[in-house]
Every structure is written in C-alpha cells, then in structure tokens.
Amino acid sequence: MTTHREPLPSVLETIGETPLVRVHDSPDSAPVYAKLESFNPGASIKDRIGKHMLERMLERGDIDPGGTVIEPTAGNTGIGLAVAAKQLGLQAVFVVPERFSVEKQQLMRALGADVVNTPSEEGMGYAIDRAHELAAELDNATVPQQFSNPLNAEAHYETTAPEIDEALDGAVGAVVAGCGTAGTLMGTARYFRERDANTHIVAVEPDGSAYREFLGHDVAHETYKTEGIGTHDIATNELFDPDLVDEIRAISDRHVHEEMGRLAAEEGHLAASSAAANSVAAKAVAEAIADGEIDAPHDTVVTVFPDSSERYLSKGVYRSFEEWEG
C-alpha cells in the first residue's frame, strides 16, 4: 500500500489508501484484517463514494459546476459528499432522519452543507422522497442516491478492493461487510469474485433488520441501536445482489456493544457500532474457516471498520448497554 509522503494539492487526494490492520481476537490460522476507514479526511468510508460519485457525475454531465447535490443520508455519506462538493464547485443539501447522530449533522453543516431533518418514524424511504422533491424545485440539482446509484459500489470496486488485494497479495478468502446501502460489500465482492469465484461473501446486518428477506427468510422487523447498516424496507436497497452473497449474518445490539468496548480496551480501535458488528461477524467466519466449516480459497478474512466511535459519544456507546441510545 502507498503512503502519502509528498505535499498534496487537495484534501480529495487524501481519500483512500487507508490502513489494513489485524484484528487480534481472531484465530492465527484464519486471521481477520480490517480496513480502518476513519483515516479518511471526513473520517469514514463514505468519503470514497462522495469523491467518486461526484467526479463521475460531473464528467457525465449529470450535474454542472455550481449545481446542487441533494442526498438522503444517515450522516456519513453527507459528510463524504460535503467534503467533495465544495472542492468540486458544488452545493450540498442533505435530508437526514432526526434520530441519527447529532455529531454527523453538525459536521455536515460545518462543511458548508444545508441539513433538512425528517421525522424518524417515517424512515429512510420518506427521506428519499423528500430529497427528490427538493431537487425538482431547483435548477441544476440532482440526487446522487447512494441506495440505487451503481457508482456507489463502483467506488469500492475501483478503490477499496484493489487496496485490500495489494496489501494481502491477493490472498483473500472471505469478505465480510455490513450493508446499509450495500455499496461497500457489493463493489468489494464483485472485485474478489472476479478473481476467485469461491471467495466467501458475507453480508452483516443488525438483529431486527430485513436484509435476510433477500434470501427468503422471514424477519421480525424491530428497532436496533446499531447505526449505519440494516434496513426495514429492502425495496429501497437496490444495489444488493443476493447472487453475490453466500450468507447474511445478523448481529445483536448487545454483541455489538460488547465488541465496541472490547475493540477499544484491548486493541485500541475507537470503532463505531457498524465496525463492531463487522468484527463480530468476521471473527465468526474466521473461526468457521479455521474449523473447516467454510471452504474458502484462502485462510484470510477481510472486513471494514467504516468510522469512529467518536462520532457517537453523545449516544453513550461506551456507557452501559441500557444507556446506549439507539
């Protein structure tokens, strides 16, 4: 992997090339490695799609310089798009359900974006509809729509996956990642499946989320505290391709909370809830590979830690489980 050793012309040039670090609470015979995406300038994996999507949309003429991007987002995508928008001469407006992180919304505003809140009980589907309504009211405005735009997955196919491939010399046996939009998993899965069709692909969601419905499971829709991944309406998750996925693992909030604390106390990772869910699932997959229960082409599991717990401290992620606000 390359490192940035020379002066750079723009913050956009610092996006990507994040560290890949061993998760030590995984078997030596099937180690887990996590991509630490908080090293991006906007401190999350969504910086990758912010840069990639807006650059491609400008190139294609989907929007002209000086225009406005309007996106429904739980927060990190808004930050990633806001980081890129100003540098590319665009304005940004984000439609955010109220229950999501106050820190994220403050950062979006600090980066020069406008934030429009929608009622939490209306869900992300309502936020998506509201974003399209706002775009229709403006000239030279567009909705990148991370939930359905193939450029989302393409960003990870062209950047995240090749970085992992280079760091591990191609020895990737399994890819494990949480699904919100599913862009990270879909882009990375497609890249590694093209190199070895037997690469084991695992989607991660919180208990109470509905992604398992893609594989024909009955799911009891329930609220969950884990942020950034999961869905209550698979109709809005257009990027997810069940044919690219071997299994979907649901992780309980309690296990997520325990792993957030363990990652910090034992391994020095200030990782947020979606990262903790990925870690729990990736370690389970690694144990299954080590025990011969999963036949993977290599005894190595990769996952991503999408952002930092610092973005959620106001929700009590390091207090007791009961004090953690969902």
Mean of residue pLDDT? 94
Q: In percent, how much strand structure appears in the residues?
A: 15-25%
Widest beta sheet: strand line-up: 1-2-10-7-8-9
Rounded to an integer in angstroms, the radius of gyration calculated over CA atoms is 19 Å
Order of helices and strands: EEHEHEHEHEHEHEEHHE
Helicity level: 25-40%
The major pleated sheet works out as: 6 strands, mixed
Shape, per Cα inertia axes:
globular
Determine the N-to-C terminus distance: 36 Å
Alpha-beta classification:
alpha/beta
The beta-strand count equals: 10
Q: Give the assembly state of these chains.
A: single chain
Q: What this model shows, in words?
A:
The two termini are 36 Å apart. The radius of gyration is 19 Å and the shape is globular. Strand 7, helix 6 (183-195) and strand 8 (200-206) form a beta-alpha-beta unit. It is 35% helix and 15% strand. It contains eight helices and ten strands. The longest helix has 18 residues, at 150-167. The chain is of the alpha/beta class and 326 residues long. The chain has a six-stranded mixed β-sheet, sandwiched between helices.
